[in-house]
Design a protein that fits this description.
This protein is α+β, with helices and mostly antiparallel strands. It contains 4 helices and 5 strands. The protein is globular and about 45 Å long.
């Protein structure tokens, strides 16, 4: 018999990967909801070790999205595949028409994610942001935390 992991899921019963998605309102309370969901999902899959950096990552991503697009829904995706935890936050902040404004906005987003960058780097992970592809609008910010 295999002993359960800290999260209560025997290692042999854990699926090889998972994917979850959640839409949250663009307000400050959404960060707390996202942290709780991430913690619960990771615990259910025996990945408790990833909870602290993943919770910090979603907090930072949501806080930045809410500052840039208050009141706009954000979409959180959490996936575990190929030994890595992947987080994606899609916000609705529209692209600026003026290239100068767009550049300043991108730089402001990157500067506001300094804590995220430090934690992801400490875990040997990667992160970044990309513009959503049409017909969608907004920005997709992603984090990969290796196992």
């Amino acid at each position: 018999m295999t002993a359960p992991s800290a999260g209560g899921v025997p290692p042999s019963a854990a699926p090889p990967g998972f994917a979850y998605g959640l839409t949250l309102p663009g307000g400050p309370g959404s960060a707390g909801v996202a942290r709780a969901v991430v913690r619960s999902v990771l615990r259910a899959h025996g990945l408790d070790r990833h909870a602290p950096p993943a919770q910090l990552a979603v907090t930072e991503l949501i806080a930045t999205a809410v500052r840039l697009g208050p009141g706009e829904d954000v979409h959180l995706f959490l996936r575990h595949r190929e030994g890595a935890l992947r987080l994606l936050l899609w916000d609705q902040h529209p692209r600026h028409r003026d290239p100068g404004d767009e550049g300043r906005c991108v730089e402001r987003r990157r500067r506001s994610l300094w804590l995220l960058a430090a934690v992801v780097d400490d875990w040997g992970g990667k992160w970044g942001t990309v513009e959503a592809r049409p017909p969608h609008r907004g920005t997709k910010s992603w984090v990969v935390l290796p196992r």
